[in-house]
Amino acid sequence: MPENRRTLTIQLALFLITLVTTTLAGTEWMHGHLFFFSDKAFGWQEFCQGFQFSIPFLGVLTVHEFGHYFVARRHRVRVSLPYYIPLWFGISPSIGTMGAFIKIREQVQSRIKFFDIGIAGPLAGFVVALLVLWYGFTHLPPPEHIFTIHPEYLEHGLSYPHFVYENAAGNIALGDNLVFWFFKSYVADPALLPHRFEIIHYPYLFAGYLALFFTALNLIPIGQLDGGHILYGLIGKKKFDIVAPTLYVLALTYSGIGLYTLIEFSLFTNEEFYSGLLSLALYAIFLFICLRKVFENPLNALMLALGVVLAQLLIAHFFPGITGYPVFLFFLFILGRFLGIYHPETPDERPLGAGRVVLGIVALLVFVLCFSPQPFIEL
């Protein structure tokens, strides 16, 4: 089979598999239980209901990737069609995919091209995400719909929130970003709006929220993320090599606030104190691994890792109301160790024109609108 045909076959197969896995994941979220190890079996009808999640979610993802693709082709940069990454287990919660990516098959020659390719995806995807959320919030089912998901709530009637959340452990709420808050506050009918612990069961709302979440992740202005391409185009390599590492360190610092506290250590017994100290040391080593590629000298990375730990302890002590989001640490580890926080230099360093600068500011604004400091709140 010729190389191009084999590649297209792989890409199509990955898309179809991802369509199936995201549909299965959507079915699980809609019905409130996993595929395996459940006394409630999924049939064909339940599977088809999952398309209400997979089609809008993959729709945003696909528009995002083809935004990159078509702009790259317009600039005569050789790129691949999207590769989708399916991921579903049926024994733990998932969204059915790890996203998608395109391969740039040659060096991008200018800041302008990097900027255009980078910004096209998230802006295009953001527009579709807004449409998904508008549809979801303007087509909410009646409040009684929750009883088809949780028939055990029926005994309490529509007053169920006063009874079923007395012990809220295990429930998942979506942390508001500015866009999601706007739709909940000004678009949705308050009489139809589901409780915050139940929004994950509403496929268009959940798909739209995830689209905003991944848009924000992609727009983080670090490395070769879309936001990194945009920031590199805006300020050039010299300034980027200062700003990106600074933002990375700030992100690490925020994410780990509250993991360890001075008060916690003061309450430990002797045995607990030393095990806690060991845990803190391992955490500092983890931060060192994240930061190792920021500096050529490993001693600088070690000193900065210890500085981050100290800053987190002090913030948690003097401002106990501020807590980070440790889940971000996994993403930052991948970013620091594998994707990189710096940006490859381009032969053509000519600055952007005024129109592109405005677009770049719009993209940074979209990041602010989509970003949530606590995206998923599990109680």
TrEMBL record:
Domain of life, per lineage: Bacteria
Location in or out of the cell: Membrane
Annotated keywords: Hydrolase, Membrane, Protease, Transit peptide, Transmembrane, Transmembrane helix
Listed transmembrane segments: 83-102, 114-137, 202-221, 242-261, 273-291, 298-319, 325-342, 354-377
Magnesium as UniProt keyword: no
Main location class: membrane
Cofactors (names): Zn(2+)
Membrane topology annotation: Multi-pass membrane protein
Record flagged with keyword Ribonucleoprotein: no
InterPro entries assigned: EGY1-like, Peptidase_M50
Residues in Peptidase M50 domain copies: 53-236
One annotated GO molecular function: peptidase activity
Gene Ontology biological process: proteolysis
Entry similarity comment: Belongs to the peptidase M50B family.
Protein name per its UniProtKB record: Site-2 protease family protein
Species assigned in the record: Ravibacter arvi
